[in-house]
């Protein structure tokens, strides 16, 4: 085995404080639109419907999640990834962790290794520790861990290579955490933009998600115009997802690269737009799971994409 292909050793902090951290050789990605080969999904074995946001609270009041149905929907979601040849990795579920299915949040993958985030709510903090153990098991090195306030992975949105949009709603990702992560990626030479959002929306990946190179889905009704102008100035075309669909997690889908998308049934406008552009779309019904506050993008973490 030559030096180039030797796996990067597992470590708890790979980040070079002055920047210039070497990208991983076997894991990670350049952007969120290249071909997905490995994904991190949760196991909904211990999923519980809790009042974690305005959205999940509303469903809890009106028609609480049928957990068995949600688990069956998750199985379909997993099968969709597998049908596209994506390798699914799953951490052992823990009964103390009711939201472990939302793998987007407790860590975020980057070209340099995984960032261990700092969950805002006490019932999700254990997910950060479970993520460290799982990355060690997978042999994926950790880039760094957030120590300045809270930071949740749904707020780390890689728009294109070397460019990240960081959501900051205060209740989940605090400004302190956002600025710490921003400083790391600025040192690596990235462009970083902070998006201050209302905590009602929970994370930025509720309203802005990359589809393909220079093509991004955005809920124009709730995304600050400055962010939309910034995307357009980069040459991004926008697919507008209606507000009502967005509130049903309709703008929260996963790009598999190669013009293939896994999207929720709750998003007819987006699905129609994608099909009209020639994308292969696997439409999965995730409505029951989404009553607990997250969607397809929140339930996935890209571990490896190949250019
Ligand atoms: N990235 C995301 O938007 N994740 C959704 C998390 C939902 C979960 N019920 C929570 O409120 O933490």
UniProtKB/TrEMBL annotation:
Gene Ontology process terms (BP): L-arginine deiminase pathway
UniProt keyword annotations, A-Z: Hydrolase
Alphabetical list of Pfam families matching this protein: DDAH_eukar (PF19420)
Top-level taxon of origin: Bacteria
Residue ranges, annotated region (Disordered): 1-25
Pathway: Amino-acid degradation; L-arginine degradation via ADI pathway; carbamoyl phosphate from L-arginine: step 1/2
Key word DNA damage present: no
Reaction(s) the record says it catalyses: L-arginine + H2O = L-citrulline + NH4(+)
Gene3D superfamilies attached to this UniProt entry: L-arginine/glycine Amidinotransferase, Chain A
Top-tier EC class: hydrolase
Keyword Iron-sulfur: no
EC number from the UniProt entry: 3.5.3.6
Protein name: arginine deiminase
């Amino acid at each position: 085995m030559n030096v180039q292909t030797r796996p990067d050793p597992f470590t708890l902090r790979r980040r070079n404080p002055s920047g210039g951290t070497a990208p991983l050789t076997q894991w990670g990605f350049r952007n969120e639109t290249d071909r997905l080969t490995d994904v991190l999904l949760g196991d909904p074995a211990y999923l519980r419907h809790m009042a974690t946001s305005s959205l999940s609270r509303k469903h809890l009041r009106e028609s609480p999640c049928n957990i068995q149905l949600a688990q069956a929907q998750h199985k379909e979601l997993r099968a969709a990834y597998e049908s596209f040849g994506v390798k699914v990795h799953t951490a052992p579920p823990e009964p103390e962790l009711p939201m472990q299915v939302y793998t987007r949040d407790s860590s975020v993958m980057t070209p340099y290794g995984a960032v261990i985030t700092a969950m805002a709510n006490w019932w999700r903090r254990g997910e950060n520790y479970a993520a460290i153990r799982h990355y060690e098991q997978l042999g994926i090195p950790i880039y760094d861990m957030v120590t300045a306030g809270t930071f949740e992975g749904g707020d780390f949105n890689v728009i294109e290579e070397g460019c990240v949009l960081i959501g900051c709603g205060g209740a989940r990702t605090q400004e302190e955490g956002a600025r710490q992560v921003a400083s790391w990626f600025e040192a690596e030479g990235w462009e970083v933009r902070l998006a201050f959002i209302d905590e009602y929306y929970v994370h930025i990946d509720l309203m802005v998600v990359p589809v393909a190179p220079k093509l991004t889905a955005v809920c124009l009704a709730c995304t600050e115009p400055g962010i939309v102008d910034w995307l357009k100035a980069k040459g991004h075309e926008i697919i507008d997802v209606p507000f009502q669909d967005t509130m049903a997690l309709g703008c929260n889908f996963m790009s598999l690269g190669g013009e293939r998308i896994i999207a929720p049934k709750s998003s007819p406008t987006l699905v129609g737009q994608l099909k009209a552009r020639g994308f292969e779309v696997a439409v999965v019904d995730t409505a029951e799971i989404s009553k607990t506050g997250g969607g397809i993008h929140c339930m996935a973490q890209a571990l490896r994409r190949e250019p």
